[in-house]
Amino acid sequence: MPPSPCALCKVNRALILRPKDHSKLCKTCFISVFETEIHHTITTNALFHRGEKVAIGASGGKDSTVLASVLKTLNERYDYSLDLILLSIDEGIKGYRDDSLETVKRNAEQYGMHLTILGYDELYGWTMDQVVEQVGKKGNCTYCGVFRRQALDRGASRLGVKHVVTGHNADDVAETVLMNLLRGDLPRLSRTTSIVTSTPSASADPASDTNIKRSKPLKYAYEKEIVLYAHHKKLDYFSTECIYSPEAFRGSARALIKNLERVRPSAILDVVRSGEDMAKLVPGSDEGCGGACSKGVSAAEEEEGEGGCGSAQGRSTGGEMASVEAQLRQNEAAVDGHLETEITTKTINGSGKQQEACAANGKKAKKGIVPKKSSKQVMGQCKRCGYLSSQEICKACVLLEGLNKARPRNHIEVGYEVQDVSLNSVRDELDATSIRRD
Amino acid sequence: MPGKHLSHASDEPCRRCKHNLSVLVVRSEPLCHDCFARYVHTKCIKRLESFRVHFGAEQPPRILVPLSFGVSSLTLLHILNRHLQTQKSKTGRTGFAISAVYIQDPGQDLPAEHWLEKARQQYPDHQYASLPLHEVFRLVPDDASLQALVPQLEHQGNASPQQRFAHLINSLSSATARADVLTTLRTRLIVEHAQRIGCESILWGDSTTRLAQRTLAETAKGRGFSLPWHISDGASPFGLHFHYPLRDVLKKELVSYTHMSEPGLAALVHETTPGVAQASMSSKNTTIDDLMKQYFESVEENFPSIVANVVRTTSKLEIRPGAAADPRCSLCSMPVPGGRFGIHAWGGDQQDGQDFTSSGRNNLCHGCTRSIPKPVVGCSGS
């Protein structure tokens, strides 16, 4: 078979089979069409305004590295006149984050962008390695996710930036759509499909770190094309997954998305479109509450993290599906309860018959049987840290409280900020204990 | 294991009657034969509130039950038949009258008349009919839009419905597209038949598992916009009502039911698409529907409540007000919000301009656009 020419320029030899639609392109045309599509996403959604200062949430991974590279290119080519900076969060995971942060530092030089690194230890007094040591490998993704949402907002606010862009791609969004269908979480499905999630500020203070706009310019870009782009542009990125495991629901949804892509390449984009359309059908979705009225966490906090971690919902890892199953079964038993057993579960509050009809038809989200619900909540500020929260104390502070209780030595610790370079925190812990006894 | 039957549970008494020995475990409850049958009946019949006996009514409303001769649709017919007998013995009247229809897929060798006759012997009080799927080109009244989907046929005005049908199916480029278009056409033919014989409602045999599969499959095909109509009870865009009385029963529970029920039911079951779960996933012939079927059959095994929750959650999606006035898709007939036909009318496709693939003749929704080959030459599609 003779080498086929590029479907676009018809001149060069086609070397790339485009993952998204299987068109055959040459390298130059692929790079240009990839960039043009991101430009299209940015302009049709009016993501930026001229002169805006934008922080790129940079992890050193492929998505955020490509995002930084493409934004720099487009900013120059189309004269967006954006002030682009890099913002990295150091979760404090040895063998993962410290290596990837080196990548971010090189990216900052390569792209001539200012870089700020903000550590969990600096913000919360805990690195993720210490959290894992404390709570174990199960369930630590919850901590990481909750901490990171706030960390990006706090970092942005510290830098005087009102807009953070993240590297979420089409695969991530599609995965999130399926995952939330499987978990039965319509409010979250509705929020996570939108390209911009901004948290309305609860305080009048313009410097508050709660009204930071988030957007995902790579929302329609295929993961495979991001990898191809990084490869052909010879971008410098770090390609190790987080060493702590992802949640079961996301893993399940991710496997489905990969299989779907194999059967029909357009399926990823089709799921994204379905998700956007379904968001409009979610009861109460357009009642002006934006993303802020559910679960007591800000829209930003609700967003799903890159690379499989960061769900605020992820109580545990391996057993997540099993525990949701158990919870649902309990609810079902309670609903069926009016038939022959005593009603014991507190989710039941009406007469049996009504509950039954409601559970079956699912007409009213408020009365729902499933625990996660789109109930309206009043947003306020956390009494401890001032972060947007529907509870008195925000999620991060609640988690911190639990952690700190188990570490009473914390307040007398000296030189704790260098904790992340110490090699063995078990030994530190022992040392600290013995010092205190002295 | 939920739903696994016999041996496992036999030393435990039934959780409900506390009397007989249990024969299987249903959602962590050991049940005896009778209580399990009652469990399935109750789940189905409580969905039939609108078909109670109305003493004022002169004639009971006629409903259509589409039969595939699979476990689910036959179980539905069986339970409905039983329900009618109960109504009759209690009140001397019935709340509804049943018509059943079997749609013959092309190239299928199931002798329709033979099987319908067997069903008639088993459940003699109802009307039965069978239609070949290509009849959709003859029966659907505004068929111009359907026919225009296959451009080559425009000048063959005298082609038979069979020929047109074969043309259309042969023009589809993937197994997913073929399965999708066949399902869509089947639904349209069933609806058309229901209207012609004066049915007010169609009672589908879909189980919980099947509805969950549908939910994710339609999502994956870009039909999120029409999802409420695919899985909710109530008015359909076709003008009659859709009901899914088995929506609270899992597929594996229906399988157990047919095994344990009277032998006449099991003898009728003729699964026309067996063993999808065994099909190789690398096969080019795998469809999105197969993928979801396989997925939920495995989830159902250990996480039945998650399957049920997908369906319950999705039925909370609300139909847009004013949807009835929206322009319809030429193929699936669903109202498309704001007439945004095709795939390019959507920002996510990242192409400016209007949809050139579905020219003025056809207005296809996102999902149907993916299945129907583009008239423009040169694009391989998916």
UniProtKB/TrEMBL annotation, chain A:
Domain (tRNA(Ile)-lysidine/2-thiocytidine synthase N-terminal): residue spans on this chain: 53-241
Coiled-coil intervals, chain numbering: none
Keywords: Cytoplasm, Hydrolase, RNA-binding, Transferase, tRNA processing, tRNA-binding
Domain Cytoplasmic tRNA 2-thiolation protein 1 C-terminal positions: 380-409
Pathway: tRNA modification; 5-methoxycarbonylmethyl-2-thiouridine-tRNA biosynthesis
Primary location class: cytoplasm
GO molecular-function terms, A-Z: hydrolase activity; nucleotidyltransferase activity; tRNA binding
A Pfam family hit: zn-ribbon_14
GO CC entries: cytosolic tRNA wobble base thiouridylase complex; mitochondrion
EC number: 2.7.7.-
Subcellular location per the Swiss-Prot or TrEMBL entry: Cytoplasm
One BP term from GO: tRNA wobble position uridine thiolation
Keyword Amino-acid biosynthesis: no
Record family assignment: Belongs to the TtcA family. CTU1/NCS6/ATPBD3 subfamily.
Functional note: Plays a central role in 2-thiolation of mcm(5)S(2)U at tRNA wobble positions of tRNA(Lys), tRNA(Glu) and tRNA(Gln). Directly binds tRNAs and probably acts by catalyzing adenylation of tRNAs, an intermediate required for 2-thiolation. It is unclear whether it acts as a sulfurtransferase that transfers sulfur from thiocarboxylated URM1 onto the uridine of tRNAs at wobble position. Prior mcm(5) tRNA modification by the elongator complex is required for 2-thiolation. May also be involved in protein urmylation.
HAMAP family: CTU1
PANTHER family the UniProt entry points to: ATPASES OF THE PP SUPERFAMILY-RELATED, CYTOPLASMIC TRNA 2-THIOLATION PROTEIN 1
The protein's name in its UniProt record: Cytoplasmic tRNA 2-thiolation protein 1
UniProt organism field: Decorospora gaudefroyi
UniProtKB/TrEMBL annotation, chain B:
NADP keyword on record: no
Any one of the GO BP annotations: tRNA wobble position uridine thiolation
UniProt KW keywords: Cytoplasm, tRNA processing
Keyword Cytoplasm applies: yes
GO molecular function: nucleotidyltransferase activity; sulfurtransferase activity; tRNA binding
Pathway named in the protein's UniProt entry: tRNA modification; 5-methoxycarbonylmethyl-2-thiouridine-tRNA biosynthesis
A Pfam family reported for this protein in Swiss-Prot or TrEMBL: CTU2
InterPro entries cross-referenced by the UniProt entry: CTU2, Rossmann-like_a/b/a_fold
Superkingdom field: Eukaryota
One GO CC annotation: cytosol
Compartmental location: Cytoplasm
HAMAP family (alphabetical): CTU2
Similarity section: Belongs to the CTU2/NCS2 family.
Entry function: Plays a central role in 2-thiolation of mcm(5)S(2)U at tRNA wobble positions of tRNA(Lys), tRNA(Glu) and tRNA(Gln). May act by forming a heterodimer with NCS6 that ligates sulfur from thiocarboxylated URM1 onto the uridine of tRNAs at wobble position. Prior mcm(5) tRNA modification by the elongator complex is required for 2-thiolation. May also be involved in protein urmylation.
Protein name: Cytoplasmic tRNA 2-thiolation protein 2
Organismal lineage: Eukaryota, Fungi, Dikarya, Ascomycota, Pezizomycotina
UniProt gene name: NCS2
